[in-house]
Design a protein that fits this description.
five-stranded parallel beta sheet; alpha/beta; globular; Rossmann fold; 179 residues
Length: 179
């Protein structure tokens, strides 16, 4: 059975909801999964998994500082043991990046740099980044940012239907890439 790990950072619950939906979808697709927060994943070896999923909210068009520190620490470790080499040869492993965002100022453009940044860590290790998913989410704690931003009224996002759709998307990703 193929194995996946889903690592996420969530301060308000939005990214956690998405991570759980992805976890459920991967399981339905036939993968054995491990779901954990970045803070719990210090000892995780990415290379033990067929698929590594990483998710975080976009803060000022970047990852939150704890996620950045985690990714850099892992990157430097893999570089020190020779797993990161010029030309980033493919190693037969895959990654999925997901990012929750509110985009009150410029919409999804605030999230895209976050997804691209997280994906680069895996591309440098030779992982094939299957996709980058951007999930519009309520700006928890600010009605103004959740109702008057470029994305309009985003209160209550992601909805149960959004999460159901993500679950199905994750399941299909397994069926298309691992079966």
């Amino acid at each position: 059975m193929k194995k996946a790990v889903i690592l996420y950072c969530s301060f308000t619950g939005n990214t956690e909801k998405v991570a759980k939906a992805i976890d459920e979808g991967l399981k339905e697709g036939g993968m054995e999964t491990t779901l954990m927060r970045f803070q719990e994943a210090e000892e995780i070896d990415y290379f033990d998994y067929d698929l590594v999923c990483v998710g975080a909210p976009s803060y000022n068009w970047s990852v939150p500082q704890p996620v950045n520190e985690y990714l850099k620490k892992k990157f430097n470790y893999y570089k020190s043991i020779g797993k990161i080499v010029p030309n980033s040869p493919r190693v037969g492993k895959k990654a999925l990046v997901f990012c929750t965002y509110s985009g009150p100022h410029t919409g999804i453009d605030e999230a895209i740099p976050t997804g691209l940044y997280m994906g680069q860590f895996f591309d440098h290790m030779g992982f094939d980044v299957l996709d980058k998913w951007y999930i519009l989410s309520e700006f928890i704690g600010s009605e103004e940012m959740s109702t008057r931003g470029r994305m309009g009224d985003i209160r209550g996002l992601p909805t149960e239907q959004d999460l159901k759709d993500l679950k199905e998307k994750a399941k299909n990703m397994v069926l298309e890439n691992f079966c």
